[in-house]
Amino acid sequence: MSITILLADDHIVVRQGLRSLLEAQPDFEVIGEAKDGLEAVKQVEALHPGVLVLDLVMPGMSGMEVVRRVHDQTHVIILSMHSNEAYVVEALRSGAYGYVLKDATAGELAQAIRTVVNGQRFLSAPFSEHGIEAYLRRSRTGPLDPYETLTAREREVLVLAANGLSNPEIANRLTISPRTAEIHRANMMHKLDLHTQTDLVRYALRRGLVTLEE
């Protein structure tokens, strides 16, 4: 039975290369591609892939926020150029099953896909499982992250607001009233102790919720 895979990366050459490498495996089937974070979320919901191979740096909505939204629907593998352990920890805390560096071999990525589809974690060779576990334990016992207090709708509003959408535009995107969008925005800003649009954008960038487009 084939393992179905969705590829999400904003560079078409990268997606084409990954598709070619993965489809050479007899048990893999690439069933879709996404060029940005919002499209990745929609594709997961529509196609129900077994595995999502996802870049961290995506236009509009970052890969990290995509993980938070879809980790209960598919097994997510982050494929990234970032080798900082902090990124690995945040990805795993957000619900990713695997973290593979972009300079990994095709064989390592294939191994990662087969590993996570069985419900096991996979980390690229440079990362220490022991070290990551220690980071995760410390993060679990630390003070409550204010982001965790946001509702799902408030997180949506946060991403859209950080991308510069006004309350009426957010309302139109989420099919809610402008007043409701305003309330969600105010509640979100209060919970995160943010006071200006600049504060909001800086917070979203720091958390990897949005990214600066190249």
TrEMBL record:
Sorted UniProt keywords: DNA-binding, Phosphoprotein, Transcription, Transcription regulation
InterPro entries: CheY-like_superfamily, NreC/VraR/RcsB-like_REC, Sig_transdc_resp-reg_C-effctor, Sig_transdc_resp-reg_receiver, Tscrpt_reg_LuxR_C, WalR-like
A matching Pfam family: Response_reg
Residues with PTM 4-aspartylphosphate: D55
Entries under SMART domains matching the protein: HTH_LUXR (SM00421), REC (SM00448)
Annotated HTH luxR-type domain residues: 143-208
Ranges for domain Response regulatory: 4-117
Entry's Gene Ontology molecular function annotations: DNA binding
GO biological process: one example: regulation of DNA-templated transcription
Signal peptide positions on this chain: none
Protein name (database record): Two component transcriptional regulator, LuxR family
UniProt lineage: Bacteria, Bacillati, Chloroflexota, Anaerolineae, Anaerolineales
